[in-house]
Structures are given as C-alpha cells and as structure tokens.
C-alpha cells in the first residue's frame, strides 16, 4: 500500500496557533505507537490534498523532525463558517496491529418506504470497526431498498453482510424510515421554526443595543 507523506513542523506553544493559521498551517498533535505526544503543525492545503487521496480514515506518513511516522487522522476541528481546519489529532499506529476506527455508514438503494412518501433518517451515521490499518474502509454500504415505512435497520440485520469486525451491539440503529408528516404536524413545525427565528432576531437586537461595558463582560 502506497502512503502519502505529510511534512510537519514543530509547534512550541499554543501562542503560535493564531499566527500559524494565518499562514495556512493547522496546529496539531501526534501521539500513539512509539511516539511521545508532540505538538506539530501541518500545511492545510497539503493535509486536504492527502485526505482526498487516502480518504478520511486513510493512513499517511508524517515526517516529524526527520522521523517517519505512520498515522491516521483521529479528530479535527473545523470553522463552521469558513471551513478552515482549526486543529487536528493524529494517532501513530503499528501497521501490523488492528485498531478501532469510526467508519461512515452509507445507505444504498431506493427504499420502498421513501417511494411511498416516508423519509429516511440515520440515527447513527458511523460504526466502529476493528481492522488493520491497511484494510480500513472509506465507508460501509447498507442496502435499504426493501425498507418500509416504520421500519428500522439495525446492525444485527446486516452484520453478516459486513466484511469487518463491527464493535457496536446488534440493536445499534443505522437507518429508519419515518412516516410522512401530517398537515397539522407540518403547520406546527413551521410555527415552531418561525418562533425560533423571531427569538434569534430579538436576541441579536438585544446584543447589538447593549452598552459596550455589558458586551465586554
């Protein structure tokens, strides 16, 4: 398996984070197999490029002070508005040992219940699989084409069709088909959303009109 290398630089303290982000770098930390926890920074453009190549759960090589570390991205924080990656956590791994990773569940097929007006929901969008780093899947597909309104697909229903060791229990809900909302329910939902919008607008106005000393507090 070919892995893409990501160059890192040492990060001395949190005080650098703002300036690093302004320069296009992501403050990060790497820890795990034969690796002491170390504060680093990676170029955001390079990280995004690598993630597109290997996938969200893919293994990459981190160049840390001249040492090559096999690692996976375990967590990251992202600006909800700008989309900028604010921080990343990398786990150093042993390529010969299994590890537990979260993998996205992707429904496939046109559910019968959806064709009849129901709506598809995912109570849980991920499952935890135990697998060797070289075998980590990008996602796991579950067939929902036979699902009717009111039915829920659990892990127990599809476990034998998944080629990986999934850690959750059999009653772990993956996909549900909800019944269509009645006109009364839709009207109530619209009314609730309007009230929430009006409240948010009132809160914003109150904040804007507050004295400067109150805002500072």
From TrEMBL:
Annotated Large ribosomal subunit protein bL25 L25 domain residues = 8-90
| A single Gene Ontology CC term | cytosolic large ribosomal subunit
- Keyword entries, A-Z: Ribonucleoprotein, Ribosomal protein, RNA-binding, rRNA-binding
One function term, GO molecular function aspect: structural constituent of ribosome
The record's annotation in InterPro entries points to: Rbsml_bL25/Gln-tRNA_synth_N (IPR020056), Ribosomal_bL25/Gln-tRNA_synth (IPR011035), Ribosomal_bL25_b-dom (IPR020057), Ribosomal_bL25_C (IPR037121), Ribosomal_bL25_long (IPR001021), Ribosomal_L25_dom (IPR029751), Ribosomal_uL5_bac-type (IPR020930)
Keyword Ribonucleoprotein included in the entry's annotation: yes
Any one of the GO BP annotations:
translation
Protein's job: This is one of the proteins that binds to the 5S RNA in the ribosome where it forms part of the central protuberance.
What does the subunit comment say? Part of the 50S ribosomal subunit; part of the 5S rRNA/L5/L18/L25 subcomplex. Contacts the 5S rRNA. Binds to the 5S rRNA independently of L5 and L18.
This protein is called what?
Large ribosomal subunit protein bL25
Gene name per UniProt = rplY
